[in-house]
Amino acid sequence: DQQVKQNSPSLSVQEGRISILNCDYTNSMFDYFLWYKKYPAEGPTFLISISSIKDKNEDGRFTVFLNKSAKHLSLHIVPSQPGDSAVYFCAASNSNFGNEKLTFGTGTRLTIIP
Amino acid sequence: EAQVTQNPRYLITVTGKKLTVTCSQNMNHEYMSWYRQDPGLGLRQIYYSMNVEVTDKGDVPEGYKVSRKEKRNFPLILESPSPNQTSLYFCASTRLLAGGNEQFFGPGTRLTVL
């Protein structure tokens, strides 16, 4: 039972345009959401997060939007750069204290075309 | 430099031969976890530890053991590896933040069990 779903395994975007990565979840107990970026041969690195009390969080070129009623979040990257080419994982948890168990999506491979 | 290290990075072994993958963090985090990444399944938590001598099962603990004798180290032990444990393994440690936590991942260990 995949509680966090990333339905697009891959996405290609022209450099300079907006990249939009989507994530859906089924567990209504999730209250904290994160995006991780992963390059080949490296571990995932934290990108941005959002708590369920917010519907938007912005950090530079990266913005995460949360629609709780639709159980949907998205990551916007504007403008997209070649270094953004990586696999992006969405993750969710139902606790923000201690060892929250992160439930990950299956990832979306983003390719930025120069 | 704050980091999570894992060794070895690559390992090929045979069924039944006990092995240990080491994990160490230099950030004085109390919480650490092990994940495995498999195609189409994302990252799944194997075990986690909330502090020294405190460990618990994640989603896929069968066939694995862990120990936490010191805060910085969290080794993953496969007593009798089987081919279905061929995977990419990540160790992570957690930094506690107000409003949500951030996990730092190691570079990964690619294990092949023949």
Attribute tags:
heterodimer; A: 114 residues; mainly beta; 6-stranded mixed sheet; 5-stranded antiparallel sheet; 0% helix; 53% strand; globular; B: 114 residues; 7-stranded mixed sheet; 4-stranded antiparallel sheet; 11 strands
Write the layout of secondary structure elements.
The complex is a heterodimer of chains A (114) and B (114).
Chain A: E1 4-5, E2 10-14, E3 19-25, E4 32-38, E5 45-51, E6 56-59, E7 62-67, E8 72-77, E9 86-93, E10 103-104, E11 108-113
Parallel strand pairs in A: 2-11
Antiparallel strand pairs in A: 1-3, 3-8, 4-5, 4-9, 6-7, 7-8, 9-10, 9-11
Chain B: E1 4-7, E2 10-13, E3 19-25, E4 31-38, E5 42-51, E6 54-57, E7 65-66, E8 76-78, E9 87-95, E10 102-105, E11 109-113
Parallel strand pairs in B: 2-11
Antiparallel strand pairs in B: 1-3, 3-8, 4-5, 4-9, 5-6, 7-8, 9-10, 9-11
What do these coordinates show?
The complex is a heterodimer of chains A (114) and B (114). Chain A is mainly β and 114 residues long. Chain A is built from no helices and eleven strands. Chain A has strands at residues 4-5, 10-14, 19-25, 32-38, 45-51, 56-59, 62-67, 72-77, 86-93, 103-104, 108-113. In chain A, a hairpin with a 2-residue loop joins strand 6 and strand 7. With 114 residues, chain B is mostly beta strands. The mean pLDDT of chain B is 93. Chain A binds chain B through residues 4, 32, 34, 36, 41-46, 49, 51, 89, 91, 96-102, 104-107, and chain B through 4, 31, 33, 35, 40-45, 48-50, 58-59, 90, 92, 94, 96, 99-108.
Identify the overall geometry of chain A: globular
* Strand-residue proportion of chain B: over 45%
Distance between the termini of chain A: 37 Å
Uncertain stretches of chain B: none
Quick overview:
Chain A is mainly β and 114 residues long. Chain A contains no helices and eleven strands.
